[in-house]
Amino acid sequence: MTAAPLVIVIDDDPSVRSSLKFLLSTVGLQTETFDSANSFLHKKRPDVPSCLVLDVRLPGLSGLDFQRELAARNICIPIIFLTGHGDIPMTVRAMKAGAVEFLTKPFRDQDLLDAVRIALDRDCARREQETEIADLHRRFASLTSREQEVVSKVVAGMLNKQIAAELGTAESTVKVQRGRAMEKMQAESLAHLIKMIQKLQLSSDKVA
Amino acid sequence: MNTFSSSSSSREDVPLQGSIPQSTASLDSILCTEELHRRPSRPPDYEKENHALVKLVSALADSPSTIFHTLAETIQNITQCDSAGLSLLTRDGKTPHVDGQRFYWPAICGMWNPHVGGGTPRNFGPCGDVLDQNRTLLFTHFERRYPYLMPVSPAAEECLLVPFYVNGKAVGTIWGIMHSDRRKFDAEDDRVMASLGKFASSAYQAWMHIEELKVEVAEREKAEAEVRELAKGLEAKIRRLVESNIVGIIMFNLDGAITEANAAFLNMVQFNGDDLASGRVRWADLTPAEWRGSDERAIAEINATGIAQPYEKEYFAKDGSRVPVIVGGALFAGSQSEGVAFVLDLTEQKRAQQRLEEARRSLYTTQAELARVARLTTMGELAASIAHEVNQPLTAVTNNGSACLRLLSNRNLDPEVLKRALQEIVADATRASAVIAQIRAFIKKTPTEMSELDINDVIHEVLALASHELQKDQVSVDCQLTGTLPRVRADRVQLQQVLLNLVMNGVEAMTGSQPRTLSLQSRTDESGNVLVAVCDSGTGLGSETDSLFTPFFTTKADGMGMGLPISRSLIENHGGRLCASANSPHGAVFSFTLPVAGETNS
């Protein structure tokens, strides 16, 4: 991991903001603070692993509404909620919507730091996965359409002879196209190729 | 029986009135009275005459109703005529009347007997002629002048008529008829008839007297029957009243006795009919000493007016308990000491009154309690935001403290950093404790603590308390406070409560309105009092201004309707006034005044 992770704190109380920044600094974490959800949304987000620490009871846009707003904008960022008086239904709603943690003020410092660590790890993993998928997409896109056709039939478990019969070409031609595709996909084995294609299918399913 | 009372089947063979056919025959042509004295006369038969008169007298004594018939019989018997009868003046054709315009025949003996009930007109007939000439007349074939007698058969050859009078007034005639010439009336007949005419007068008088008596008796009987009927109806009604036992009813005398009482009264005082019969139940003895005065006043009233207006008192019941009652009575008409009274049991009413009294007392207690609850409810509404207010500084303190500890254990501590952190910790802790102090002041049910204070301070304190609510609802606050106001003497917490209540009401009233501006003003009014106004731009008061300060009146779904009534009473306890008015262009203004400190020493 090259870029330093960033913790984003949103709270309307300046004391809470500064104390959180101070606390997070003791474990070497960079912090950026906002007094409202809107001011955060208006600012461009640095492309580094990050997480949100925010008060449920925000002026303007409430914490839970903000969570919905982020999902609608397709912004994936792990959230740690802070609340003065969280009730159970509110907690359940937040956790279901993907919150990492729901902490009641005042909280133990270790609980917050643990939650931040988990959130950042989750964001790192997500970012890595996104990078890998993007790489695979690039490699797959570099195949010719015939090579892509051959690869999909190989992954489906067809033999070269069967593929040649289906495409109306010679078995030797299929063999050559298959070898070239393996090379472009940087596949070390047939199993490796199958795994990569599955990842691509999964991600496109997710997008769909 | 040919009595006139039974002769209702009168024969209408002679017209009563109207056009009577005239004839040419003169009265003289049908009269032959003078002949009576020229005819040979038979000798008087006094024995027979006396006998007949005795018979008449005894008939008058024994059976007056048949007297006219007996008279007719006697005439026929003495004169040996063919028909005999009498004619009486009548108005209705049935009963004698001196002012009658027609004669009728109540009794006829002999051949004309079937014509009983018939008669002749007063002014054009033989009887009328007799009365006009005031003497006995003898007619021969009078149907020649009076053709209406033509159908009355057999025809009268001769008719001897004698008038009779009562108290100088002609009332009728008696007559005898010969239908053939076998015998002629003579002077002796004239004499006897005159004699019988006098008797007829007496008989008529007696009869009329009897008739009058009959009428009188009938009227008296009718009146008595009516009285009896009335008494029966009234008695039934009174009995219904007494026996229905809706109220107690007693018959009493002024000596203290109860002579009669219905079950309702006896049940009231737990006595029975035997107790009453033995004379043990005496109103004087049933009355407790302290109520004797009321009884005496009632007796004085009853002696003066006959009636005692209803008054309240108590009776002892048989078991010694007391029965509250209302009593009213009256003496019987014509009695000096006996009367009737009604007695109404008030036990239930008294009990209900007592319950009402208790309910009212408990309502006061409840209202006082509610006032406290309402205060706590306002608290409860604020509790959420206050928790936030407390948690914010506490969170900051915890974070700063934890961070310092971490740096300490890492031996990585810059004294400047530590100093800054500790300063923040102290500031936040102070902030938290201030919030808590405010809450405590709210919750505590403290007695009034009067002190001299600046109303603007209270306004700021309340705005701080409500700041989160104001922010949450995006209400902008416009403070127009007069800087140098005289101080007021008041309980700070109570003023906070009132003001907070008004501010929260204002915020709620503006839900959904635009713009949401809450304006707070402080100044002195024209009387020199300190005035605070809370103006909102909400929905306004509408027609509810009058009800606003009524306990339990509320326009809020979950409101209790106690806020404004309590606020008003708090302000009034401070010697001020709280009132509501409309804001312009919309919304409401709630303002209260407080007297300046030093001017009131209450």
Explain this structure.
The complex is a heterodimer of chains A (208) and B (602). A five-stranded parallel beta sheet of chain A has the order 2-1-3-4-5, sandwiched between helices. Chain A contains nine helices and five strands. Chain A has helices spanning 14-25, 37-41, 63-72, 88-96, 109-141, 145-155, 160-167, 171-184, 190-207; strands at 6-10, 30-34, 50-55, 79-83, 101-104. By secondary structure, chain B is an alpha+beta fold. Chain B has helices at residues 27-30, 35-38, 46-62, 67-79, 126-133, 187-244, 263-269, 273-277, 283-286, 292-305, 347-409, 415-443, 455-472, 492-509, 563-573, and strands at residues 83-90, 102-110, 119-121, 137-140, 158-166, 169-178, 248-253, 258-261, 307-316, 322-331, 338-345, 450-453, 476-481, 488-491, 517-524, 530-535, 577-582, 588-594. In chain B, the strands form four sheets. Chain B has a six-stranded antiparallel beta sheet with strand order 3-2-1-6-5-4, sandwiched between helices. In chain B, β5 and β6 (169-178) form a beta hairpin. In chain B, α3 (46-62) runs antiparallel to α4, α11 (347-409) crosses α13 (455-472) and α13 (455-472) runs parallel beside α14. The model of chain B is unreliable at 1-19 (pLDDT under 50). At the A-B interface, α1 of A face α11 and α12 of B.
